[in-house]
Design brief:
The chain is built from 10 helices and 18 strands. By secondary structure, it is α+β, with helices and mostly antiparallel strands. It folds into 2 domains: 5-228, P-loop containing nucleotide triphosphate hydrolases (Rossmann fold); 230-349, Beta Barrel (OB fold (Dihydrolipoamide Acetyltransferase, E2P)). Strands 6-7-8-3-9-10 form a 6-stranded mixed sheet, with helices on both faces. A 5-stranded antiparallel sheet has the order 13-17-14-15-16, with no helix packed on it. It has a 4-stranded antiparallel sheet with strand order 2-1-4-5, covered by helices on one side. Strand 7, helix 5 (167-184) and strand 8 (187-192) form a beta-alpha-beta unit. It binds adenosine-5'-diphosphate and magnesium ion. Residues 14, 17, 19, 37, 39-45 line the site of adenosine-5'-diphosphate (ADP).
Length: 360
């Protein structure tokens, strides 16, 4: 079976700006696919090209095996949901959802039925007669989703659809969107700059940087085996060991990454166990995060590593560690070796303390 979406050599240049730069990508039928990357990395432009709102500078776009590169937007079997969900304020919820079918001259009875079905899918049964101003932000976003689903597209493009919602609602909607996608079986292409969101929802993730894909992998692979320092820093907290420190601590040249939850803190003079490495250093910061605590340790060998611990007991003791000397202990096999090490850390993802990304 052909891919739901196939992009070949796709580019979109605006003067000097290479918004999308020679992209090759295949998205499978029924996949929940995410495009993750910092602001300006080209994610929205890719969606607009697939939807047909923009013409590419070069390259081919195929939907279900058909070349649609020159086909106008309304003749492509895709629908788009944006962050600023454009629902009509003067129409009822039902009229909003029916709108696309009305334009296509679908008879009234069928329109009704399909609108009710779409509202049920987004858990808004019984809301048909309401007006948009009577809905919460989350409910309005569901209406926008129902409006797209009612057309039964093969592909749904979602551009940061949860960006306007507060954190709690956003987390709830992440799980629901994933469930809805499973139920309807439509291919979802989901754009976000939020790594946690991408990890939560996706079958596969493409990490974007400067109009290109830096890595394409499953959430687990991205986290466990980042292909570059850029990806390691953008997806999760990056703890890098490189240069002289790599020679000293790992015993070989290269760049290595280790995740905070794989690091253990021990007394400074603790002897490492079998297959373990212990590196001494000073605790520079202890950050209480509710469910976990992050301890930032500047190693004598150079790098600063963040260790994370679940707060299964009260964290008072950990908070008192600031300024003290400790050892950071890890198992050799928990280091991932980075292939591409040319990349600097990303500019707009994690703070120096490796705090989880905050709402904008
Ligand atoms: P993202 O969605 O990842 O934040 P975009 O696809 O919106 O990124 O933008 C990618 C790059 O293309 C940015 O540098 C942006 O400024 C530029 N760009 C996007 N649309 C236009 C446009 N219509 N004209 C000129 N430059 C644009
Ligand atoms: Mg965008």
């Amino acid at each position: 079976m052909s891919a739901a979406i196939a992009l070949t050599g796709l580019s979109k240049h605006y003067g000097e700006v290479r918004a999308v730069d020679g992209l090759d990508l295949e998205i499978a039928d029924g996949e929940f696919f995410s495009m993750l990357g910092p602001s300006g990395s080209g994610k929205t432009t890719v969606l607009r090209l697939v939807a047909g709102f923009e013409q590419p500078t070069a390259g081919v776009i195929e939907l279900a095996g058909e070349d649609v590169t020159r086909r106008p937007a309304h003749k492509r079997d895709v629908n788009t949901v944006f962050q600023d969900y454009a629902i009509f304020p003067h129409l009822s919820v039902r009229q909003n959802v029916e709108y696309g079918l009305r334009v296509k001259k679908v008879p009234k009875a069928e329109r009704r039925e399909r609108a009710e079905e779409a509202l049920a899918t987004v858990r808004l049964e019984g809301y048909g007669d309401r007006r948009p101003h009577q809905l919460s932000g989350g409910q309005r976003q569901r209406v926008a989703l129902a409006r797209a689903l009612v057309n039964r597209p093969r592909v749904l493009l979602l551009d940061e659809p949860l960006g306007a919602l507060d954190l709690q609602l956003r987390k709830q909607m992440q799980l629901e969107l994933k469930q809805i996608q499973r139920e309807v079986g439509i291919t979802f292409v989901f754009v976000t700059h939020d790594q946690e969101e991408a990890l939560t929802m996706s079958d596969r993730i493409a990490v974007f940087r400067d109009g290109r894909i830096e890595q394409l992998a499953t959430p687990r692979e991205l986290y466990e085996q980042p292909a570059s320092a850029f990806v390691a820093g953008f997806v999760g907290t990056s703890n890098l060991i490189e240069g002289d420190a790599a020679e000293k601590l790992v015993g070989e040249a290269g760049t290595f990454v280790i995740r905070p939850e794989r690091l253990r803190l021990a007394a400074e003079d603790a002897a490492p166990g079998d297959g373990e490495t212990a590196a001494a250093g000073v605790v520079r910061e202890v950050v209480y995060l509710g469910a976990s605590t992050h301890t930032v340790v500047e190693l004598d060998a150079g790098p600063t590593l963040t260790a994370s611990h679940p707060n299964t007991e009260t964290a008072d003791a950990a908070l008192e560690r600031r300024g003290t000397r400790v050892a950071v202990v890890w198992r050799r096999e928990q280091l991932a070796s980075l292939a591409g090490t040319d990349a600097g850390p990303p500019t707009d993802s994690q703070g120096a303390l490796g705090l989880p990304e905050m709402e904008e």
